Amino acid sequence: MGTTSLQPFVQALGWALLHALWQGALVMILLACALHFMRGFSAHARYVAATLGLLLMLAAPTATFSRLYISAPAAGSEASQSAANVDNGRAANMKGNVPKGATHAQPDSAGGVLKPVDFASLQSLTESRFPSLARWLVLFWLAGIVIFSGRLFSGWMATERLKRRGIERATAACEESFARLARRIGISRPARLYKSVLVEVPTVIGWLRPVILVPVSAFTGLSQQQLEALLAHELAHVRRYDYLVNLLQAIAETLLFYHPAVWWVSKQIRVEREHACDDLAVEACGDALLYARALAELETLRVGDERSLALAANGGSLLSRIRRLISAPARDEQRRHAWLPALLLFVTISSTLAVAQGALFAVTDAEGIRPSASSPKRAVAFTFVGLPYYRGGDETVESLNDTTNKLLAGMAANNIKAVGFVGENQLYREGQTEERINLLRRWLDAGHELGNQSYKHMSLYNTPLEIYEANVLRGEQVTRSLMQERGRQLKYFSYPYLNTGPNAETKKAFEQFLKEHGYRIHAVTIDNLDWIFSNAYLEARNRGDREVMKRISDEYVVYMESVFAHYEQLSTKVFGREIPQVLMLSASALNADNFDRLVEMLKRRGYAFITMDEALEDKAFAQQPAYAGPWGISWIERWAIEKGVDLRGDPVLPRYMWQFGKDGLKTPNKSQ
């Protein structure tokens, strides 16, 4: 269960790491263009722009992960689903020739089964492989985090050693001059000045109580004015809070170590930071040439290569800095409105990134790659078949009441009004008939509607039309009477197995029969194999195996979310939008026990709950699809056939679950 519960987190993180590649590249390209056009602006403005770019590089994958994780399935066995792809296709092919995308037919209450669908498709195989790939991506990322965190930690340890070893306080005269310089630059918090034998360039460490370390050679080899100019540069780092920004860079380089764009942006920040501090130092000492000479003189005093501490604010090319100081225009003009171009750049880049990410997620949502909690408002109507109870032949009155109570309570809690389709042959059980009819009354008392599913669960494909019509009329006797008791009319009919007839002539004749008897058709758009899960769940419940019941429930919720993702995708392909959906569920113990979880999943996907009357008002339902034939498929799939839309990509079942559709009620062992 630990691995299963982590799967949504790992998959969302894997996708976020992949999305970070194009997000970071986009930010880098836009920032490079902006810095090119900002050549005439101050170093401070360019520094702010680069820093905001780095923040966007961190924020974009964080937002992506949050969006994906919030909308991910809560739990489930992704591994068993991906392993089942090939087996599902093989099982379907063993049953005979199956057209693409067909069929989600339901069995009758005695357990009869139509042929299962061919779920194996390139899309589902590709999507099912990503959870495994995501694990390797996350493992690689975590390994990199460990390595670069070690780099960050070693840099922090080095700076701590510099603060404690080989240092001594500067002379009183130097400290007094240092304090005056700090006040001139505008630093209010205390800063300490030390001589150090370990550093070769002036270095500032810390933020709350900053420490400035100056090489001993600088005190003896530089004039007082040159030393003050260099100290002004380090105090500029303190005034600008560069230590914190440098820490941000270290974090970004650790978390996004694999992205070259992050390192490029971080380099731009370091370069512009040194230029900005140079500008402040020149303002403080009032002589750019003096400051440039101080930098050049300091270089001659060095005895080794410049250190590049992970947490020390340094960087930039000394030669380019000196050339810039000598040739730079007046800095007062440069610094005017420094925040304005950076702010405009931030708005431009973040807007472009948001548009690009929104466009990509719109495509991936349409392709069914992942669900989106921020999709346009979706709507679904609930319908139940098999009332008063799916596979209720041997159930006790107590269990029937328990299932009914849970279903009605779940719908009441979420303000759901459903249509329940009755198979009246289930009403007649010795000693239970009146109790079963009372269950239907309870559905009506709760504000729901009843529909006709015919007396026996017959398929119009292989039943003579006159017998089928007689079966429909026999199946409305009690149901119509109950509706009339409450002043309502029986108006909905649901095709058993969702089969609308063997040919166009039979289909047309039966639809005319329905019209003459005041029926509207139960136009199912979200069809599924919940009956297979229900069979497995019922068998596990009958033997008291709660562990298997929980496993089935977890896998069922994940499966149902993949079903919705599939039909959302198909709806977009057929209509260019997501139409209101009509969901068909079995009135089973499985759905009763997991109803709250299903509702939570649908809310997370952005669904509102409507009635079937409201759903059928959509213009998509104005025309009945023409398909007739052996397969019981959803209305969206029927419309897709008419428009030549590819039906591949159906969700897959866990491997062991197939036996409940092929071989009757066989028990999955706990070890499976």
How would you describe the overall organization of this protein?
- The chain is α/β, with parallel strands linked by helices.
- Helix content is 59%, strand content 7%.
- The chain is elongated, with a radius of gyration of 35 Å.
- Mean pLDDT is 78; it is low at 73-128, 303-315, 330-337, 362-375 and 663-672.
List keywords for this structure.
672 residues, alpha/beta, five-stranded parallel β-sheet, four-stranded mixed β-sheet, 11 strands, 7% strand, disordered C terminus
Can you describe this structure in just a few lines?
With 672 residues, the protein is α/β, with parallel strands linked by helices. The protein has 25 helices and 11 strands.
How would the blueprint of this fold be written?
Elements (H helix, E strand, L loop, with lengths): L1 H36 L5 H28 L7 H17 L27 H43 L2 E3 L2 H14 L6 E5 L6 E3 L5 E5 H6 L2 H16 L2 H14 L4 H26 L2 H14 L16 H10 L3 H5 L3 H28 L11 E10 L9 H17 L5 E4 L10 H13 L3 E4 L12 H10 L2 H9 L6 E2 L10 H13 L3 E2 L8 H13 L3 H30 L5 E6 L2 H5 L1 H10 L2 E4 L1 H5 L18 H9 L15 H4 L10
Parallel strand pairs: 2-4, 5-6, 5-10, 5-11, 6-7, 8-9
Antiparallel strand pairs: 1-2, 3-4
Shape by Cα distribution: elongated
> So how many helices?
25
Count the beta strands. 11
Reported for the largest beta sheet, the result is: 5 strands, parallel
Mean pLDDT: 78
Based on CA atoms alone, the radius of gyration comes out at: 35 Å
Low-confidence stretches: 73-128, 303-315, 330-337, 362-375, 663-672
Sheet-strand content, in percent, reads 5-15%
CA-CA gap between termini: 14 Å
Helix content: 55-70%
